[in-house]
Amino acid sequence: MVDVGSKDVSQRSALAVGVVSMRAETLAAINDHQLAKGEVLAVARVAGIQAAKRCADLIPLCHPLALSKVQVEFSQLSDTELEVRAQCKLKGQTGVEMEALTAVSVAALTIYDMCKAVDKGITITDVRLLEKTGGKSGDWKHEQGSVVRRNEAKQV
Q1: Catalytic pick among 32, 57, 79, 113
Q2: Is 79 a catalytic residue?
């Protein structure tokens, strides 16, 4: 692991995003809570939060972090697409980009797992860091921004 002991403690945050594409009937079933495994987005939200908290157990050489915030949200982009967003924050000596990316990835995988009985063709794409703040390298934003403008998406 990289020694971060001499780095300054600062407020740090990261925002990541990904897209889950599926058949329109599958997304309708998610929204109507009609899937056998239960409320897909509620379970996926908890899975994403747990994944961010356990990132160091999943990704070699990641530092275990005391996160102060993990938020996982879903927005419907179309009749067939969900956007998964995760924001992680802490006050510490290393960034939280991997935690946010892991939260998005595991939340998306949970959606797949809970829906695969009715739609094996679900795809997970465009997982990426949108922005990070804090630390020696300062703030950073992805050049292409979000997958969609937030006011065009329907929060679910």
Answers
A1: 113
A2: no
